[in-house]
Write a structure and sequence with these properties.
Blueprint: E1 4-15, E2 21-32, E3 38-46, E4 52-56, E5 58-63, E6 67-75, E7 79-88, E8 91-95, E9 102-103, H1 106-110, E10 114-120, E11 124-131, E12 136-144, E13 150-157, E14 165-174, E15 186-194, E16 202-209, E17 212-216, E18 223-224
Antiparallel strand pairs: 1-2, 1-10, 2-6, 3-4, 3-7, 5-6, 7-8, 7-9, 11-12, 12-15, 13-14, 13-16, 14-15, 16-17, 16-18
């Protein structure tokens, strides 16, 4: 992988508790662990100040292949463009979307209770999952809208891959069109499967589009429930 890669970003609004809404944005970045001391920042353009400012990321977790994820949660600042900066061992590395910057639709974010705009770097990513008390597994998946015809699903097991099953997703919503050809629009899909109350298992996400299959297997660890 490159030294630093954006995984995903999102922005939206949430109730403040006083009758108004607060703007927020979240970012997840993957970096190569080149040294213990490092700094990872979202370098974003703030619509309110008109300037570019660094927003620090914090370490989230280590992953196979000597990589780490770092995350940032930003309140109040309305970031409409951003790049990722990684400083380590006297070097500075960037993910700037091939020189185009990454775009967040602030108007869509402000007009939505919850996430209103999303950016996705890989072709498919599981962004949230849970199993309810009845044993229903629900997985929210972001995909790049590469073509209209597509199939989104998971392969899952409850017996350590002695056997496995597939479950297929349903389209939930698209996000506002990107304004740069280097950033493909994202879509949200939901996959549901009955795994049984109290069951434990694993799953990975697949995305079939234009004759190609992409996977999110949590950096080879699979997702555990």
């Amino acid at each position: 992988m490159n030294e630093v890669v954006l995984l995903n970003a999102e922005a939206g609004s949430s109730p403040s508790g006083t009758g108004s809404f607060n703007y927020f944005s979240n970012f997840t970045v993957v970096v190569e662990n080149l040294a213990f001391n490092k700094q990872v920042d979202i370098f974003g353009h703030d619509l309110d100040t008109g300037g570019w400012h660094p927003f620090p990321c914090g370490f989230a977790k280590s992953l196979p292949g000597n990589v780490e994820t770092w995350t940032a949660h930003v309140n109040a600042s309305r970031i409409d463009q951003f790049v990722v900066e990684y400083q380590v061992s006297g070097n500075t590395f960037w993910d700037n979307n091939f020189g185009n910057n990454y775009i967040l639709d602030t108007q869509a974010a402000e007009g939505t209770d919850g996430v209103g705009t999303a950016v996705l770097k890989p072709e498919v990513l599981a962004v949230e999952f849970a199993v309810d008390a009845a044993g229903a597994l629900s997985v929210d998946v972001l995909v790049k809208n590469i073509a209209f015809a597509k199939q989104v699903g998971i392969v899952y097991t409850i017996n350590n891959w002695q056997t496995f099953q597939n479950a297929f997703g349903v389209f939930q919503r698209g996000f506002p069109p990107a304004t740069t050809p280097a950033q493909i629009n994202a879509e949200l899909w939901k996959v549901e499967a009955f795994v049984g109350a109290g069951q434990k298992g694993q799953f990975a996400v697949f995305y079939n589009v234009s004759g190609h299959t992409s996977w999110d297997n949590n950096f080879s660890l699979n997702y555990s429930f």
